[in-house]
Specification:
Order of helices and strands: HHHHHHHHH
Shape: globular
Strand content: under 5%
Largest sheet: none
Structural class: mainly alpha
Number of strands: 0
Helix content: 55-70%
Distance between the termini: 33 Å
Radius of gyration: 17 Å
Number of domains: 1
Length: about 200
């Protein structure tokens, strides 16, 4: 139970800068929607989805059935964003980018704190995994916004969105995608840690 709670707290900690990054970049591109909805903050309570950030990750951690979760999505208005759909893609990429930056910070701290190194290293690995996972170009993941920036027809995007969650589950359970992402995040964690040791 203790390990599962730690996993959930780490995940919540990682979703906060991820969602904040979406909100911050959106405001910089002219969309005041995240500001009006109180999302341009590092307060974890502003970004929590109690089902996706807490309950589901806790249940999956306790059952040992893998790990799936999400933060509270940041709403944006493409009509207000500078560069339109291209701006939306930049907003989307800000989330995974924040996970990479946060992982580097965590690993720098891990290299200078022997007692906290295992915990910080695990958090960094999960942060990198989330960055990689979110780049899958299937709605509702961040990578899907690249399809819009590439001008994939909305009808195609909407059809993908209808079955997006199912497609992600199939890809994770019936292919080696999950293993590949896990190995990539682990190897990247070790490489970045090596910068500081």
């Amino acid at each position: 139970m203790e390990s599962a709670l730690i996993n959930v707290l780490i995940f919540w900690m990682l979703t906060t800068p991820h969602e904040f990054a979406h909100a911050w970049v959106a405001t910089k591109l002219g969309d005041d929607t995240p500001t009006l909805e109180g999302r341009v903050t590092l307060n974890p309570l502003a970004h929590v989805d109690w089902l996706g950030t807490v309950l589901l990750p806790l249940v999956m951690s306790l059952s040992g059935a893998g790990f799936i979760g999400w933060g509270k999505p940041v709403n944006t208005n493409p009509r207000k964003l500078q560069w339109g759909l291209n701006g939306m893609a930049l907003v989307a990429m800000a989330g995974p980018a924040s996970n990479v930056i946060f992982a580097v910070v965590l690993l720098a701290a891990a290299a200078h704190s022997e007692s906290m190194s295992p915990l910080l290293g695990n958090a960094a690995r999960l942060s990198l995994y989330l960055a990689i996972f979110n780049m899958i170009p299937v709605p509702p993941l961040d990578g899907s916004k690249l399809l819009l920036a590439a001008r994939v027809p909305f009808v195609v995007y909407n059809e993908l969105a209808r079955f997006g969650f199912l497609l992600i589950l199939i890809a994770m359970s019936a292919t080696s995608l999950g293993l590949w992402m896990s190995n990539l995040s682990w190897n990247t964690t070790r490489a970045i840690y090596g910068w500081f040791t």
